[in-house]
Design brief:
single chain; about 475 residues; alpha/beta; Arc Repressor Mutant, subunit A; Aspartate Aminotransferase, domain 1; Aspartate Aminotransferase, domain 2; 3 domains; 3-stranded antiparallel sheet; 15 helices
Length: about 475
């Protein structure tokens, strides 16, 4: 790669080269440790004499901007860059809008690896040790071979035919979803699916309803689109449908495994929600984020499978079953918004990564996904059972688990007053990562408790970590 330098005229050639490299270092375009081109090569590229380049390098070295290593080359010295700022920058016309985005909270951002504890109860993280590395590697090689056959053009906005076909079969088999591949839109994670539905339905001032407590990124995304977001309470049967106000055009819900509390929506409540949506002409977003993992009772149908009027947009993700790093999800769009969603996706990112789609299509068609889900289910069931036993045993004086039959997190509500901030701080000091429940409340008064993800903690570590939590609770009590 050539170093970007522009030489004008024939005067002060050394000075021009020196100043441009110096400015590039200060602005951060040349990072610390980056090697500069050899003087002979740069001279040829710029049409200068080697002496001119050598003199510029010498001045940079004298100023300690560049360090020379005999027999190796010249390198940018290890010093902080000073990004150039205009002395009198004009007022930004869109400063207020930019400030709104800059100040918007970003909940559920996972910590960096350096910030995680030895014993992690973070939610939404599948077990990396269970990831099918060998099978996935084989599918990635297949994807590369398929991509090599293509003409290198953009792909279909809706997603690869093979992947959409596999997704349609999978959700029909596992969740009873009624769809064909033509209803499937492959997205960059579930979050993009939510964004696409919001883009084609939400306009400033319109009313949308979300569960409270609920999934903060969904609420914030809808608010960022200018919607009047209304919080709807949840009880033991799920979203309280009677609270959905007139004029609502979009309803967001997690019926299989309410986020974050975990209870499933009752059949009666599901019918009531569908009837309310029909009466309002509203679309219901069914976020079915981790329902593949079920531990008790008979499986319930998806809300979409009960919908006979095209009111439900079904959102799924592979972040919980495989890995959030893949950024692969999907939307089963009802006919009323399918074409609009495809246009919106085309305008925002054209299409999701083609190699990743080929790999996932191969993985699913070979039966790898169902095999992996069964393997994870066995591991998660053991962890869940151990956590339930502990919270029904020696941790029961402080917490009560919310009954949940699916997913891979549990919610524990406080039975007595606990200094939650102190508990989390002391737990972190003994290498236990705990996470509070109250951050998921926005409209209603928050309830104190914990959200206990068991995807990132090994079964053998549960007793050790919860012993530490119990000891802290006894101390601060």
């Amino acid at each position: 790669m050539e170093l970007h330098v522009v030489i004008e005229g024939k005067k002060d050639l050394t000075g021009q080269l020196y100043r441009q490299i110096k400015e590039a270092i200060h602005a951060g375009r040349l990072a610390a440790g980056e090697q500069l081109p050899p003087s002979r090569l740069l001279a040829e590229q710029l049409g200068l004499s080697r002496k001119t380049v050598s003199e510029a390098y010498a001045r940079l070295t004298y100023d300690r901007l560049v360090v020379g290593q005999v027999g190796v080359g010249s390198f940018v010295s290890d010093q902080p860059s000073r990004r150039a700022q205009a002395a009198h920058a004009p007022a930004l016309a869109g400063a207020a809008v930019a400030a709104q985005w800059r100040n918007m909270p970003t909940p559920l951002r996972h910590p960096s690896p350096a910030g995680t504890a030895r014993y992690e109860y973070i939610g939404g993280s599948p077990d990396r040790s269970l990831y099918p590395q060998a099978d996935w590697r084989r599918c990635v090689l297949y994807a590369l071979r398929e991509c090599a056959k293509s003409r290198g053009m953009y792909g279909e906005t809706e997603g690869l035919f093979a992947l959409r076909e596999s997704i349609a079969r999978h959700v029909a088999f596992s969740r009873g979803v009624r769809c064909s591949l033509g209803d499937v839109v492959v997205t960059s994670g579930a979050q993009q699916a939510l964004d696409l539905v919001a883009r084609v339905l939400v306009e400033p001032g319109c009313t949308v309803a979300v569960e409270d407590p609920g999934y903060p990124p969904a609420r914030l995304l809808l608010a960022a689109q200018g919607a009047n977001v209304v919080g709807i309470s949840v009880d033991s049967e799920g979203m309280v449908v009677e609270q959905i106000p007139d004029g609502t055009r979009l309803i967001y819900t997690t019926p299989a495994h309410q986020f974050p509390l975990g209870m499933p929506m009752s059949i009666a409540r599901r019918h009531a929600l569908l009837a309310r949506a029909r009466a309002l002409g509203a679309i219901v977003i069914e976020d079915d984020y981790d329902s593949e993992f079920r531990y008790e009772g008979r499986p319930t149908d998806s809300l979409q499978s009960m919908d006979t009027h095209g009111s439900v947009a079904y959102v799924g993700t592979f972040s919980k079953t495989l890995s959030p790093e893949l950024r692969l999800g999907y939307l089963i769009a009802p006919p009323a918004i399918l074409e609009a969603v495809c246009v919106a996706k085309h305008l925002t990112d054209w299409h999701t990564s083609i190699p990743a789609q080929w790999a996932l299509a191969k993985f699913m068609s070979d039966g790898g996904l169902l095999k992996h889900i069964r393997r994870c289910h066995t591991a998660y069931a053991d962890r869940r059972e151990r956590i339930v036993q502990r919270f029904q045993g020696d941790l029961s004086p402080w917490f009560e688990l919310v009954p949940a039959t699916a997913g891979f997190h549990l919610a524990a509500l406080c039975k007595q007053a606990i200094d939650m901030k102190l508990l989390l701080t002391l737990a972190r000091r003994v290498d236990v990562g705990l996470y509070p429940l109250d951050v998921f409340y926005h409209f209603a008064p928050p309830r104190q408790g914990l959200i206990l993800g068991y995807g990132a903690i090994d079964a053998a570590d549960i007793d050790t970590s919860l012993n530490r939590v119990r000891d802290i609770l006894q101390e601060i009590a």
